[in-house]
Design brief:
Blueprint: H1 8-25, E1 29-30, H2 31-38, H3 42-50, E2 57-61, E3 65-70, H4 75-87, H5 91-104, H6 109-116, H7 121-129, E4 133-137, E5 144-148, H8 150-155, H9 167-198
Antiparallel strand pairs: 1-3, 2-3, 4-5
Length: about 200
């Protein structure tokens, strides 16, 4: 692998990919992690970072990891919007997703979508913004998981998820339902494949 920095045009293209990865994964990444994902050298990552110009999103670099954050200049407007957002009711979708995370979490977004039967992206953003859930990383799969924050548990009068009212019973019921849905979906998929084969 060549560690010679790209020219400016290639730097900008690489920078777009770096920012996209940081945004999609939603967690800090080291230069070596980025280099491995993008199949380039660490020096090429460094070259791309030098090509960045200030914008609404800041690329925070603590010397070890890189992470996307909002620019300090946008703090006032972000605080205003957050205050307005906090004043809104999270609605039924928010309550569904929150209950799923509280009683079945930590869960990935795809698992939450499966349990609820709908796309939960916007709902999860709302819950994250309000500090009701937080992101964590599965140490084995590196998948992004959602779990309740300590602030939420404190508001619910619990020090741990297992302290919640009827936690064991509700979690067991949710797990049973989820398993049944998965088996039903697999059976339906197998039946469809059989139908296609007989045509």
């Amino acid at each position: 692998m060549n560690d010679t920095p790209f020219d400016m045009t290639q730097d900008k293209q690489l920078l777009v990919q770096i920012e996209a990865l940081l945004f999609v994964l939603g967690r800090p990444l080291s230069r070596s992690e980025l280099a491995g994902m993008l199949e380039v050298g660490v020096a090429q990552i460094e070259g791309a970072l030098l090509a960045r110009v200030p914008g609404g999103i800041a690329l925070v670099d603590d010397g070890v990891e890189l992470e996307l954050r909002t620019a300090p200049e946008a703090a006032t407007v972000i605080e205003k919007v957050r205050t307005e957002e906090y004043a809104r009711d999270i609605g039924r979708a928010g309550l569904e997703a929150l209950a799923t995370i509280v009683y079945r979490g930590p869960l990935s977004r795809s698992e939450i979508d499966f349990i609820r039967g709908v796309n939960s992206s916007q709902t999860l953003r709302t819950l994250l913004m309000r500090g009701l859930v937080r992101k964590s990383t599965n140490s084995k799969s590196r998948a992004t998981l959602y779990e309740p924050t300590t602030e939420l548990l404190a508001e619910l009068g619990a020090t741990h998820q297992s302290d919640l009212s009827d936690y064991a019973e509700v979690r067991k019921k949710l797990t049973t339902l989820e398993t049944a849905y998965r088996l039903s979906a697999q059976a339906g998929s197998a039946q469809n494949e059989t139908s296609v084969d007989t045509l």
